[in-house]
Design the sequence.
């Protein structure tokens, strides 16, 4: 069926489609209210190399060490370190430790589209406080994990890579995109069910009306077959002859041979007018 055919069916069965549409709106509103609002927050870390570089010798005096600007030493090793940290933070046990067991709060850690020494942290939770607090936990965990990894490798403390917080946990903002998607999906499904139920009701009603029409057409024939035959009429009585031997016409029926004579009523006379006798 085309679009206009669907519109005609919905218009014809408006008393079914309209309540269904109203029910769809109520259910969509219920879905929007019941689905919890998610809040998101984020933070950014940057990894830097030590000023003395990655090599250290105890025989070298501190004043003899060549010092450079750490921000000028962004090389591939920092990118590799950032990727290692993202793998550590992506561990399910680490996520359960930070977010809590059976918690709906989640977080992600990645190096962004550039893939440099930057580490982007974003969180989602059912409340703004939970989202912001989780960002702080992830940043702190990243700093501690970076130091623990370097200690485990027996790296000299003077060569440790440090993590600097560029962006502190941002103010959590509400995300309604998920709720809108849920509402949209529920609305589409309910509207399809509304159209399907309207077409089903229209088909059933048309079938019932057609069946009643067929039963109504067969009913007079059955009554005609079972009805008793009409009573036979007696033959008309023969007219009786009159005194002259001619048949007497039936009463109330004028004779064709007789002429109807209309006698005019006498005119009233005025005594003042002269007459022929006078």
Sequence:
């Amino acid at each position: 069926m085309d679009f206009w055919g669907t519109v005609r069916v919905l218009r014809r069965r408006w008393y079914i489609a309209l309540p269904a549409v109203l029910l769809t709106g109520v259910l969509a509103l219920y879905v929007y209210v019941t689905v919890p609002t998610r809040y998101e927050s984020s933070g950014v870390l940057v990894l830097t190399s030590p000023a003395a570089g990655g090599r250290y010798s105890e025989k070298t005096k501190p004043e003899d060490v060549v010092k450079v600007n750490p921000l000028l030493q962004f090389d591939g090793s920092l990118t590799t370190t950032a990727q290692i940290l993202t793998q550590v933070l992506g561990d399910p046990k680490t996520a359960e430790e930070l977010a809590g067991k059976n918690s709906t709060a989640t977080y992600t850690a990645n190096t962004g589209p550039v893939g440099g020494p930057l580490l982007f942290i974003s969180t989602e939770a059912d409340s703004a406080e939970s989202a912001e607090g989780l960002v702080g936990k992830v940043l702190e965990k990243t700093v501690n994990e970076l130091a623990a990894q370097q200690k485990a490798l027996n790296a000299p403390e003077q060569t440790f890579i440090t993590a600097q917080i560029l962006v502190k946990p941002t103010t959590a903002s509400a995300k309604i995109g998920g709720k809108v998607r849920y509402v949209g999906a529920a609305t589409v499904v309910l509207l399809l069910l509304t159209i399907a139920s309207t077409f089903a009701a229209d088909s059933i009603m048309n079938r019932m009306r057609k069946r009643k029409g067929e039963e109504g057409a067969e009913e007079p024939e059955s009554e005609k077959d079972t009805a008793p035959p009409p009573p036979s009429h007696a033959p008309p009585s023969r007219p009786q002859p009159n005194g002259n031997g001619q048949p007497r016409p039936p009463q109330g029926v004028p004779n064709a041979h007789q002429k109807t004579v209309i006698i005019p009523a006498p005119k009233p006379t005025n005594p003042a007018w002269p007459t022929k006798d006078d």
